[in-house]
């Protein structure tokens, strides 16, 4: 067990922020997180967070995954004090962090996310993980599945992926899996690209549009200049920023602010 005192960190807000789909609430304060081939239970009371893992695993994986070495107070303090909407959104979601997630997992996740809601996306990813991911056992005995590799998904037919409730997105996932598994698409190369280069390369994948490419850049490549625009964000921009979001003022942190806006819009519409 690793215990840390962390400011600007809230497991509940992260869970509901729409950036990770294999994090689930167990009780009000306890969560389980599956990332790549790892499994974690974490509990939070105030700023005290308990991570049920070894110190080594925390230092080598989870600290980076949760972006714990970054001061998110800087982003909140940078908000224009006259922008009451953004200040309110940031206060509501001040515990959100941009997670460092696996590129392959995020490509598949956001291909599935199109015209979908968070609940259904989680169900789809759980199904493909159970069907095509390697079965693992956590230290506490919990059985879970690693996220399926490109090689594993490339062996699935479009029909089989549709059986996992992917619908029309099945063809996107299968085509991308085949291209990654064959080496036609090299994820290691994309990881080293600049944001504009990576975005352009991701747009070449079947089914990836601008929004999905930006989501992948933000959630997997940690490009904080990425500002994905979905229905929630578009409506917020039309209402609060008819002249456009002031990206120049917030250069290099747009993605963090986008998450505050997305979370605020999501929570207020429930």
How would you characterize the overall build of this protein?
This protein is of the alpha+beta class. The chain has 14 helices and 7 strands. The strands form 2 sheets. It has a 5-stranded antiparallel β-sheet with strand order 1-5-4-3-2. The longest helix has 15 residues. It is globular. The protein starts with a strand and ends with a helix. The mean pLDDT is 96.
List unreliable stretches of 5+ residues. none
SS field, number of helical segments: 14
Shape type: globular
Distance between the termini: 35 Å
From the alpha carbons, calculate the radius of gyration and give it in angstroms. 18 Å
Helicity level = 40-55%
Content of β-strand: 5-15%
Order of strands in the sheet with most strands: 1-5-4-3-2
What's the helix-strand series? EHEEEEHHHHHEEHHHHHHHH
The overall pLDDT average reads 96
Count every beta strand, where a strand is a DSSP E run of 2 or more residues: 7
Q: Describe the biggest sheet?
A: 5 strands, antiparallel
